[in-house]
Design a protein that fits this description.
This protein is about 55% helix and about 10% strand. It contains nine helices and five strands, in the order E-H-E-H-E-H-E-H-E-H-H-H-H-H. A five-stranded parallel beta sheet has the order 2-1-3-4-5, with helices on both faces. Strand 3, helix 3 and strand 4 form a beta-alpha-beta unit. The longest helix is centred in the middle third of the chain and has 33 residues. About 25% of the residues are buried.
Length: about 210
């Protein structure tokens, strides 16, 4: 297993076929992965963790909730574990639906060992990157939340592309006061340039506050 991968990553195997579930678990553990296996979507939902990196090897057709229904639930609840679907009865519309909803891939059973292991590694790396990005953006949002109301107004107008003189006119304050608020806000936000501010602001999905 790639030494750069997270040590605590978990590969979830969700398949109602005992023989498939055990074979995949054995293969993955041999490769050094942490594995949690479940016979149903319901059992998986009761135990799954989204705070560590990982991915889900998911059978499509199972008693109770199907794999596609489980995928919809994960999307709804914003649980970003990448999914690799496995099926003996796949069709093109089903595959397209799963991929459009964010699945990493759609494999036919019996799955190819090397292909599966490669996909698992790629999925875990993807998830780790996404978690890192979310952590960065969450920290940025908290820093923006720490701004005073006026500082946030000024920053919002900077993001809109207004110059200090224009911001001063919009807020009916002096240009010097704008510079003071802007300087303090940039330090609190821990950004070194307007370009960095705009990029982080947009990635974090922050709204521009209405100016008073």
């Amino acid at each position: 297993m790639n030494s750069k991968l997270p040590d605590d990553a978990i590969i979830y195997v969700v398949d109602d076929d005992d023989s498939v579930r055990k074979a995949l678990t054995r293969m993955l553990k041999t490769e050094g992965w942490n594995v949690s296996a479940f016979p149903s979507a319901e059992d998986f939902l009761a135990e799954a963790r989204s705070d560590v990196s990982g991915c889900v090897l998911l059978d499509v057709q199972m008693p109770g909730q199907s794999g596609l229904e489980l995928q919809e639930l994960l999307v709804t609840h914003r649980i970003g574990l990448p999914i690799i679907f496995m099926t003996a009865h796949g069709d093109i519309p089903m595959t397209v639906k799963a991929i459009k909803a964010g699945a990493v891939d759609f494999l036919s059973k019996p799955v190819d060992r090397e292909c599966l292991l490669q996909l698992v590694e790629e999925a875990v790396i993807l998830h780790a990157q996404q978690q890192g990005d979310r952590a960065i953006l969450d920290a940025f949002r908290k820093r923006i939340d720490s701004l005073t109301g006026r500082e946030r107004e000024v920053m919002g107008l900077v993001v809109e592309g207004l110059l200090n003189k224009q911001i001063a006119a919009r807020l009916e304050i002096t240009e010097f006061t704008v510079k003071v608020h802007r300087g303090r806000a940039m330090r609190k936000a821990e950004v070194e340039s307007v370009a960095e501010l705009v990029a982080q602001w947009e990635r974090a999905g922050l709204a521009v506050p209405p100016s008073s």
